[in-house]
Amino acid sequence: MFEILESCPLLLLTLLVVVGSLLGQIKIAGATLGPAAVLFTAIGLTAWGVSNGVELTIPEVLGSFGLIIFTYTVGIISGPNFFGSLRRGWPVMLSTVACLALAALVAGGLGRILGLPNPLIAGTFAGALNNTPSLAAASQAAGDAELPAVGYSISYLWGVIGMMLAAAWAIQMGNRESKSATAPPLEQRTIRVDDDSDLTVAELLEHSPGSVTVSRVQHENEPTVVAAPDERLHKGDLVSVIGPHDALAAVTGKLGHASSVDIISDRTYLDSVRATLSSAKLAGRRIDELGLAEQFGAHVSRVRRGDVDMIASPDFVVQMGDRPRVVAPRDQLAPLRAHLGDSERGFSDINPSGLALGLVIGIVIGIIPIPLPTGSFTLGLAAGTLLTGLVFGRLGHIGRLPVSMPSAAANSLSALGMLVFLAYAGTKAGLQFGAAMTSNLGWKAAVLGFAITTTTAVAFLVAGRLHKTGWIQLAGQLGGGHTQPAVLAFANTRTGFDTRVSLGYALVYSTAMVAKILLAQMLVLVG
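Predicted structure:
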């Protein structure tokens, strides 16, 4: 069997994906490994093959292709929200560097106490933090890849398991909190205005707690109209408000009382439609940049992305495949749907030209040498494509060229790329796993790797709570700070692909990547 798998890497790859995916669905103590089981299956099968005199390998080009597909689509998914978070997320990025610097101090200090040579310490650091580019940087700085590779292979496995345990704990803590771990469902309520302050719709929303929107207004003895921002709310008016239950209760108390009259059932003049955004020229724009109010007298009340409904605030950035619910005059519904595109193809269009362009730019960014006093380093393919995906996901289009894709298509491609990369990474780690563990320095490197991973996990958890980061986003930051797609895959599976996980991952990934590359070289050179 091993000889067949050795001669056919594609068979090996697909077998690992099948077996790993099946094992990943098995529940142990109510939890599953999910796609990360592919990684452990690959390590185990490859180590077994080595013990039988056969080296099972997957070509590096396949692993790299899976990796860039995965990181690029993570960027596409996270891009619309990333740059808004970036403005308030710089303290998190600084703390990421601090956490990794602490891990490097532990590596250098404990490594010297154990009597380990610098190249082995640096390789163990790279493996404990699951970062192949930093292994390459350490090997280059050492002038020999043997000792760094030994340390890397010994510490890699606990690096994955330890950070998964930390992510699982963060998710469990998040689920214990009030249902803030998931967005509350949106409700609609008709409110009769008792307040005589004559607020405009914009003024009401500005002073309302929580996230709500107003879709319709019916002035006394007049037809129902779309709630424009400058529409004044007079005493006796009926107002249709949408939002979470608690926010609706607060708005009701501010305006008046809940009415038994349902103004949305009156479709004489106004109606609503949920259309699919498949027009490339609109993707990446804010709601207030779509021109719906100006062209059609329309108002977007909410947007469905995947299976989640979200309030459509004016600064909400739409993506291909989103399904906005729009209120508009009946005679404007057909042209409005044509304006948005409203094609079911919008759900699944991977946009090959935009995808290829993003990968090309990301690869180029990843391979450009960045000079250092001791030489140079590159960001690597993963960081380059992630950065490009973030930008393209935010822009949506460049001129007439769409450069984003629907979230459903991006999630599917992301899952495929992730599985291919995990199978490749597992075979690479498994080749040296058995020999490394039985070497004279094996137990020392294992102890050092355990200390580095554990220190890093605890540091990230503490820093996250100091910054008051939500537990679910913190699980993503653990994966991003660890630069480990398996941790992200695990957290995504455990949270039902909560978008906050990918957002946390993307927020710190690039910072962590650069920091690890620099720190690994310093561990070799400083001693």
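Summary: The chain is about 60% helix and 10% strand.
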